[in-house]
Amino acid sequence: MTTYAALLRGVNVGGSRKLPMAELRTLMEDLGHTGVRTYLQSGQVVFTSGRGDEESLAAELAEAVARRFGFPVDVIVRDHAYLRAVAEACPFPAAELEGRQLHVIYYSAPVDAARFAEIDRTAHLPEEFRLGDRVLYLYAPNGVGRSKLAEHLSRPRLNKGVIATSRNWNTVLKLVELTARDT
């Protein structure tokens, strides 16, 4: 049995694509997963499963959400070891920053530096980003809501062919904690 976190993109944001967490937990249990827990209302669900891999589990959940709730949702599933490795590999001094200043954009597949070559990094300073294993670490000292770099990084052409979903550092750490409970 492996413990995973599923990251659902764009649910319960701005009053659209409403997905009650209690119903999401029930859906996950109906799919045969155990130890199901949700975190916040923004689309994080932790669960244990003895079957499938990250990609097949993500596809299964996306299909089930579309059937039950009537709208498509992008899903990324990652296991505890990966989530912990992402937190440990952070290239920024996370312990010295507020959670709102540091974000991780999770990708469904590897992305390389060439994808982001058009971005003039010096034009966005003091904001910065660094790539990791299927993630991008974003340092936005004034928060992501005011970040011009975050706005630039979210452009569809930069995310073409991959699912991308962002979480603040507090959520990154909480998902490591929640997935560690059963490992």
From TrEMBL:
InterPro entries, sorted: DUF1697
One Pfam short name: DUF1697
Coiled-coil intervals, chain numbering: none
Top-level taxon of origin: Bacteria
Protein name: DUF1697 domain-containing protein
Organism: Streptomyces thermoalcalitolerans
